[in-house]
Amino acid sequence: MNEQSDISAALIKALRDARHVCILTGAGVSAESGVPTFRDAQDGLWAKYKPQELATPEAFIKDPALIWRWYRWRRDLVAEANPNPGHYAIAELEQRMPRLTLVTQNVDGLHQRAGSKHVIEFHGNLFDDRCFSDRTLHTADDSLDVPTCPDCGDYLRPGVVWFGEAIPESALNDACAATTDCDVFLSIGTSSLVYPAAGLTDLASENGACVVEINPIPTTHSARFDFAIAGNAGLVLPELLESLAP
């Protein structure tokens, strides 16, 4: 790996010259705000459950009240968290660049709370409520153990993508289009292991983009990036943003 100063200089030049930046964020960015990863959240009353037992359509059909209790508990956890400097730096970078596309694997809405305007949510949003039948958005009645759809009467479910479900087609198409078009692609706080999100790096590289990894610990795929910066998003991103100033 190059020295940090060399990487920073080259990356800053690439960002200054870019007409379109695409950013992919993962659980590491939210973890810096104290949001537990999906598996780390399996503690306390929920320690006896495997994640797959609480995050599949089959589990919801079997016991929707249990699933709703789990997700309401998760919502309470996330609601106590606040955006960190990494979130705010991405939101500010969006204002500075001619075009920026943000794709996130996180479901906590912290990017939006930090000010990011255009966010492609690969795995949905924890605070959305959707009809189990047709996925239309509604507002759940939290006084009910299992809220129902006001249109068809079927159960409402949390608006996240569960195990065994496909990424929403519009999110996948928009992310792939942005990745194909961008000049700089930043992969931040993600292991680069979960597809199809992990494939966006390859897609960006194949189309000539400068691809960059920012992660506290280099991943097993660090070698495929043009630059791999070992560090927390909350520290690295504000530094990069400051370096972009005239």
Poorly predicted parts: 1-6
The topology string of helices and strands comes to: HEHHHHEHEEEEHEHEEH
Number of domains: 2
Q: Which sequence of strands runs across the widest sheet? A: 3-2-1-7-8-9
Reported for the largest beta sheet, the result is:
6 strands, parallel
What can you see in these coordinates?
- By secondary structure, the chain is an alpha/beta fold.
- The protein has two domains: 1-35 and 83-123 and 166-246, Rossmann fold (3-Layer(aba) Sandwich); 37-80 and 127-160, SIR2/SIRT2 'Small Domain' (2-Layer Sandwich), CATH 3.30.1600.10.
- Helices cover 37% and strands 17% of the residues.
- The protein is built from nine helices and nine strands.
- It has helices at 4-17, 27-31, 57-62, 64-79, 85-96, 110-114, 169-181, 199-206, 233-244, and strands at residues 21-25, 100-104, 119-121, 124-131, 137-138, 156-160, 184-188, 210-215, 227-230.
- The protein has a six-stranded parallel beta sheet, sandwiched between helices. A three-stranded antiparallel beta sheet has the order 5-4-6, covered by helices on one side.
- Helix 8 links the parallel strand 7 and strand 8.
- Helix 5 (85-96) runs parallel beside helix 9 and helix 7 runs parallel beside helix 8 (199-206).
- It is elongated and about 55 Å long.
- Mean pLDDT is 90; it is low at 1-6.
